[in-house]
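Figure 6 in text form: structure in, sequence out.
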């Protein structure tokens, strides 16, 4: 089954905690702290695999997590780093933040591999906190938290040329006749349920990739039918070949057929109509009556007036195909800019970071400020506030994390109260806060 949309939850590895220990050897009295650092958490990495053409694997498994870093150990031993997790996707996959809808990355062009979520840094062991005034620190730094995000993945096929039009107008037949692609072909709507790609080779070592975009129907841009699911694949193509049923075998007139699909494309994204386009009237072998010929002439006249290259062909009998391919190559040469690559809309450095601190102003009339959050809770778990050295560590933490600075912006002044879970402190200025 072809899948071009998937939603998954991804989480990087948490950093390992720093270790608290002291050197204890027979002939080394008071050896000092030797707690090692925690290991780094694993990254979430996204990598293009050119052998993939679907997001189907992500339909069956929807949660992915990298390994956490291990805690440090005594004798200054560093904790083991967590293994990275690599997600392999087809080229042309868009990664979006499910919550905001913003584009994170376009896995195409030069962007073949990227770190999506960074693993947490390992915490420092207590050996780093020894000072002349504090020679035996009994605390260590906790590891940095993991990052997480719910990801929406959209596949937009990458092809130089896109074949568009109603179902059953002969797109699959044309692709099979002029390339190495072998799509299923039958006489009913939506035979093609996924984009087929083929390489078209011309004389003189010239080639390009052509995609058979599944049939678009009236109302597709509003979500009617399956066509809506495939309009996104047109974006990548540099040149479009719009195929119509020259004989109107399904009751539609060629010009009406063409204008309706143009309307659907415009309503979905008007940028589509700015692409170079060729109009190919297929099934000319079935044009037998004067009325059919008159209807076809109306389409040809419209194309001439709008400077759109127009061709008649019979894909089934391999007639009239080469002139279309030569004109396609000409347009590709005139439009040599790279295929569409979308720019990121997010700050990748902070993607998926969990809000670790929540600062609020409680009881303004009483001057009480509340500071909470996972980072603060973890710090309290590692710190003995009853001990002088532990309290000094706590004060330094409040300054280094920018908490005091943020509280001052909110109006904190000497004599106010800072409330942290079950603890309450009266604030006073110190010289080392700046």
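Output sequence:
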């Amino acid at each position: 089954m072809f899948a071009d949309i998937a939603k998954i939850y991804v989480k990087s590895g948490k950093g390992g905690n720093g270790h608290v220990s002291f050197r204890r050897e027979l002939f080394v009295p008071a050896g000092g702290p030797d707690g090692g650092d925690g290991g780094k958490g694993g990254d979430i990495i996204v990598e293009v695999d050119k052998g993939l053409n679907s997001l189907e694997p992500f339909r069956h498994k929807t949660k992915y997590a990298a390994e956490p870093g291990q805690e440090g150990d005594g004798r200054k031993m560093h904790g083991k780093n967590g293994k990275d997790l690599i997600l392999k996707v087809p080229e042309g996959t868009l990664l979006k933040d499910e919550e905001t809808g913003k584009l994170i990355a376009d896995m195409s062009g030069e962007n073949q591999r990227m770190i999506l979520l960074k693993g947490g840094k390992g915490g420092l062991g207590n050996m780093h906190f020894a000072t002349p005034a504090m020679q035996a620190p009994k605390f260590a730094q906790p590891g940095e938290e993991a990052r997480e995000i719910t990801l929406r993945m959209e596949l937009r096929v990458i092809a130089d040329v896109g074949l568009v039009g109603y179902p059953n107008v002969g797109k699959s037949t044309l692709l099979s006749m002029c390339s190495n692609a072998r799509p299923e072909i039958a006489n009913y709507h939506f035979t093609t349920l996924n984009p087929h790609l083929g390489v078209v080779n011309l004389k003189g070592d010239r080639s390009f990739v052509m995609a058979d975009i599944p049939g678009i129907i009236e109302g597709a841009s509003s979500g009617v039918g399956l066509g809506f699911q495939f309009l996104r694949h047109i974006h990548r193509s540099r040149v479009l070949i719009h195929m119509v049923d020259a004989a109107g075998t399904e009751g539609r007139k060629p010009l009406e057929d063409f204008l309706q699909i143009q309307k659907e494309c415009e309503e979905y994204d008007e940028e589509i109509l700015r692409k170079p386009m060729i109009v190919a009237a297929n099934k000319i072998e079935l044009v037998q009556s004067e009325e059919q010929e008159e209807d076809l002439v109306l389409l040809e006249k419209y194309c001439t007036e709008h400077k759109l290259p127009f061709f008649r062909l019979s894909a089934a009998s391999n007639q009239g195909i080469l002139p279309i391919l030569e004109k396609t190559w000409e347009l590709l040469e005139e439009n040599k800019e790279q295929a569409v690559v979308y720019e990121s809309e997010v700050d990748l450095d902070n993607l998926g970071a969990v809000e670790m601190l929540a600062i609020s102003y409680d009881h303004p009339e009483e001057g009480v400020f509340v500071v909470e959050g996972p980072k603060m809770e973890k710090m309290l778990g590692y710190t003995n506030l009853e001990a002088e050295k532990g309290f000094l560590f706590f004060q330094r933490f409040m300054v280094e994390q920018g908490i005091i600075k943020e509280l001052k912006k909110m109006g904190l002044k000497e004599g106010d109260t800072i409330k942290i879970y079950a603890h309450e402190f009266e604030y006073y200025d110190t010289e080392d806060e700046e």
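Caption detail: The longest strand covers residues 148-155.
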